[in-house]
Amino acid sequence: MSKASRAVLEKYDLEKSYSLKDASNLIKEITTAKFDATIDVAIRLNVDPRKADQMVRGSVSLPHGTGKDMKVLVLCTPDKVEEAKEAGADFVGLEEYIEKIKGGWTDVDVIISTPNVMGKIGALGRILGPRNLMPNPKTGTVTMDVAKAVADSKGGKIDFKVDKFGIIHAIIGKVSFSEENIYNNSKELLDTIIKLKPASAKGEYVTSVFMSSTMSPSINVDSSSI
Hints:
globular; 10 strands; alpha/beta; single chain
């Protein structure tokens, strides 16, 4: 076992669950990466994603952003191109990007679309859906106000969706963030997910929360601390 691994184990108990506040501090201490590692949370929900009324999805604006430079593609008609570019979109267009995506290109973090082109984008669902990139009115990524949507995405707004196993995975910051900023971002995400609890979901809703970074073990967060 390496010296770094031994040092991590001295600070961290695999069997223990930590409060969200403590986890936000501990993640900084047990990350051994030599770079500014990304912090993720995995939230398991007691829902059945196969049922339409239990599909939990939405978006949240993290108070301190993600620490990541979000690459944004806007799919729109020519009259919206300049607006999207001025707002800071990295890629803007329609037909050429539809063809690129059909060919397997998905090198973006967010895709925004105007409603009038969704008919053309629908066929990309099998490629974009599994990557959580499909534009959706519920997350504000299908809109005529592309400037606001781009600004929101660049400013820390993230989309989330429960996967087929009932888990939501989301980036909530970087290890360089302060403990307080990690906590605030995590809490904002969790509060948003809790508000979206489906009426048909019975019993305990949030069954587990784990926080980890690119180079750390997972920290079990005590659900009762949320």
